[in-house]
Design brief:
Shape: globular
Number of helices: 18
Largest sheet: 7 strands, mixed
Number of strands: 18
Distance between the termini: 58 Å
Helix content: 25-40%
Radius of gyration: 26 Å
Oligomer: single chain
């Protein structure tokens, strides 16, 4: 294959290898003798193009030889000699899978550069595998005899392996190094963050340590910055709900609330909503805790209570920044709720979240924390409740016939032509039968009837009944039943989040 050399190093993009995480399969494409001879290292492969880092991007011979050896087009990036040498030692110094490395060092095998070397290697492999598996969190959990590793995938924790106890200290120290934490402090919790690149994607890591009787417990939250680019259509909205929701988010003023428990996808929905209305003509400002994803054109702020920057104080300050749209990460107290109401009353569109079981519950929750009914009825324009369910793995999807009682309990009339699906379990889904997640939604748009009920301080049950009668609102369970009939998820998943 032919290479794609740049005219000189100045025209090639510089890459910081210290922040790069390289997949084992990509390393295997280029033999170590070739990497050492030309001082280069493969970074990632997209389609038929292999991207490599090298000190001299004008070395046509090196690019051509890599192209001939791998069979791919070769795209060079520039890095320093020292970073390339360090990366070659790190990635080629110890070969094999996580299990092979664990076995080697558990048996007292040679340690290339002291205890730190296998720890660096193992952490790189653990993080690479987690990202490839679509994990949202990595758990490193010390116990009496070892260090257990678990990944949270599609909301469920899966055990990956157990690491030897003698690597625990070095591995935890390595995590602290990349998170810029105090290595010497092991008695108090710490929080840190780091940025890495995997296959050309920006990944942010949120690192949390917590002392236990067997050592420090580590949780690494993986934030793929590309997720912020999700569209509303990707989240699971039905055509009817997305049509009505788009009308709400394009209003000039008012409050739109997204409700659900922690981990129900509220942040993804808010980001997708802001992306949908984002433009050069609008000034959109967010107040978050923490800022999870970076959004183009949007001013994002992270609360800092120690510095006096709370949701309420930040919202008041934002009002002096000439905003069109404000996103307040969460309404936690009366002060924040009142400030959000004031913003809506003065002509701003406000997005925020609440922790309630359903859409109608958000309205009664606002009353419970002290907001007067007349403010709620005049400011809130809609409430979106949601839950996440796992979707059936497409590689092992099969049809089956559930028990009639289970079907009826979900509110589906039994009929002969109904088809139900589930995942059998395969390598693609780690034998779970599920791959990926999607949201169930219920949308409550305020109309005259709902506003009258709010003024009467009606309970949420009456509001739900009125919403069904006046606007045909489907609740979370009904939306789940629809997704079951479409073969998207299973009855078990809907029951987990909507019973």
């Amino acid at each position: 294959m032919t290479a794609k050399p740049n005219d000189n190093n100045m025209s090639a993009t510089y890459v910081d290898l210290d922040s790069y995480l390289i997949d084992e399969k990509v390393i295997d494409l280029v033999p170590i003798d070739l990497a050492e001879r030309y001082q280069l290292i493969p970074l990632f492969k997209i389609g038929n193009t292999l991207t490599v880092a090298m000190a001299d991007s004008r070395n046509i011979r090196a690019l051509d030889e890599v192209g001939l050896k791998t069979g791919y087009e070769v795209e060079p990036l520039v890095s320093t000699d020292n970073q390339i040498k360090t990366a070659i030692h790190r990635y080629y110094g110890v070969r094999g899978s996580i299990q092979e490395i664990i076995k080697e060092f558990a048996e007292g095998g040679p340690e290339p550069s002291g205890a730190e070397a296998p720890a660096i290697r193992l952490l790189n492999l653990i993080m690479t595998q987690a990202i490839q598996d679509g994990a949202s969190d990595i758990h490193l959990e010390p116990d009496q005899n070892g260090l257990r590793t678990r990944y949270r995938i599609d909301g469920v924790l899966h055990k990956v392996n157990s690491l030897p106890k003698h690597l625990q200290s070095a591995l935890i120290s390595r995590v602290k190094v990349i998170g810029d934490l105090d290595i010497a402090e092991s008695r108090a919790p710490q929080d840190g963050r780091s940025h890495i690149k995997v296959e050309g994607k920006e990944i942010e890591l949120r690192i949390s340590t917590f002392p236990t009787i067997y050592g420090e417990n580590i949780v690494i939250r993986i934030l793929d910055q590309s997720i912020a680019l999700m569209e509303l259509e990707d989240l699971g909205f039905s055509k009817d709900i997305i049509r009505r929701y788009e009308i709400l988010i394009k209003r000039p003023h008012g409050i739109i609330l997204v409700t659900g428990p922690t981990g129900s996808g509220k942040t993804s929905t808010l980001y997708a909503s802001l992306n949908r209305i984002n433009s050069l003509e609008k000034n959109i400002i967010t107040i978050e805790d923490p800022v999870e994803y970076r959004l183009d054109l949007i001013r994002q702020t992270q609360v800092n209570p120690k510095a006096g920057l709370t949701f309420a104080s930040a919202t008041r300050a934002v009002l002096r920044q000439d905003p069109d749209v404000i996103m307040v990460g969460e309404i936690r107290d009366l002060e924040t709720a009142e400030t959000a109401m004031q913003a809506a009353l003065t002509g701003h569109l406000v997005f925020s979240t609440l922790h309630t079981n359903d859409a109608a519950g958000a309205l009664t929750r606002l009353m419970d924390i002290g907001i007067e009914p007349y403010l709620i009825s005049s400011c809130v324009v809609g409430v979106l409740a949601q839950r996440l369910v796992r979707t059936i793995c497409p590689k092992c999807k099969e049809h089956y016939q559930p028990e009639e009682k289970v079907v009826k309990d979900l509110g589906i009339p039994m009929a002969k032509d109904l088809v139900f699906s589930r995942g059998k379990g395969c390598k693609n889904c780690r034998q779970t039968g599920y791959k990926g997640r999607i949201a169930l939604f219920e949308l409550l748009a305020l109309n005259d009837t709902i506003q009258d009920l709010i003024m009467q301080r009606a309970p949420s049950g009456m509001i739900i009944k009125a919403a069904g009668e006046t606007q045909g609102m489907r609740n979370l369970r009904e939306d789940g039943a629809d997704k079951v009939l479409k073969g998207i998820t299973t009855i078990d998943e809907v029951n987990k989040v909507s019973l």
